[in-house]
Specification:
Elements lengths: L1 H10 L19 E5 L3 E4 L2 E10 L3 H11 L11 E6 L2 E8 L2 E9 L6 E9 L21 E9 L3 E9 L4 H14 L3 E8 L4 E8 L2 E8 L4 E9 L4
Antiparallel strand pairs: 1-3, 2-3, 2-8, 3-7, 4-5, 5-6, 6-7, 8-9, 9-13, 10-11, 11-12, 12-13
């Protein structure tokens, strides 16, 4: 679920500027960086996300980007910081039509820090927004909050977060009926936490889907994986 943390924050940013050359976005000092997936598309926007580990503390990483990016003015700040999703601390900047996001927290097994670097082109407000959750079964009245699609060498993945006002049990019945009636086999169908959470997993050939349903303004999180042959 770590990807969801950064992408949820990015998806909330609604700033639009003219798209120019991709801005300079260096990694933190004393860090190692690896790419997260070959292709990532969030809510119709192609993204480049990198995982980093640094010997610098979270505070030092944030200080690096404060120094690297100009402060700007009160009306047009050079960057925005937030700690609204602890333990993550986030700093973002919009430049030349791109959104750059640094999400950092203290490393759990060593000194220093770990986190994500994300960069994406801002959407063109003149274009119609994509239909989120297209092709995925949804109960009437459902609202799709995020639709993340990724592709690696041998598999495609899709993670969808949606919400509706129906109960956990009603959602579980809906997805159970849909997949079983569509030729999928059930691998998990479990009610936990006194019925406040329900987990399901289905398989159909090289495709599998996992669904977690949480109560209290019901949220459905689904992860779909399709394994592909290399040749």
């Amino acid at each position: 679920m770590k990807r969801l943390t950064i992408i949820t924050f990015i998806s909330l940013m609604g700033v639009m500027t003219a798209v120019q050359a991709r801005p300079d976005f260096p990694p933190p000092p004393d860090s190692t960086v690896s790419k997260v997936g070959d292709s990532i598309v969030l809510n119709g926007i192609a993204m480049d996300i990198r995982l980093f580990g640094s010997r610098k503390s979270p505070g030092e990483v944030l200080a690096f980007y404060r120094d690297h990016w100009p402060e700007g003015s009160q009306d047009q700040p050079g960057y925005v910081e937030t700690d609204a999703m602890p333990p993550w601390r986030i700093i973002t900047r919009v430049e030349d039509g791109y959104l750059m996001t640094v999400q950092v927290q203290a490393a759990k097994k060593s000194d220093g820090s770990t986190g994500y670097l994300g960069i994406s082109r801002m959407p063109d407000l003149d274009e119609a927004p994509p239909e989120l959750g297209r092709g995925f079964p949804k109960m009437r009245g459902s609202y799709v909050a995020n639709d993340l699609q990724s592709k690696d060498l041998a598999k495609k993945g899709r993670t969808i977060v949606l919400m509706n006002g129906a109960s956990v049990r009603t959602n579980a019945n809906f997805y159970r009926d849909f997949y079983l009636n569509s030729g999928w086999s059930a691998e998990m169908d479990k009610e936990i936490s006194g019925g406040n959470i329900h987990t399901l997993r289905f398989r159909n050939g090289n495709r599998n889907v996992s669904i977690v349903i949480n109560g209290g303004g019901t949220t459905v999180v689904t992860a779909q994986i399709t394994k592909e042959g290399l040749f």
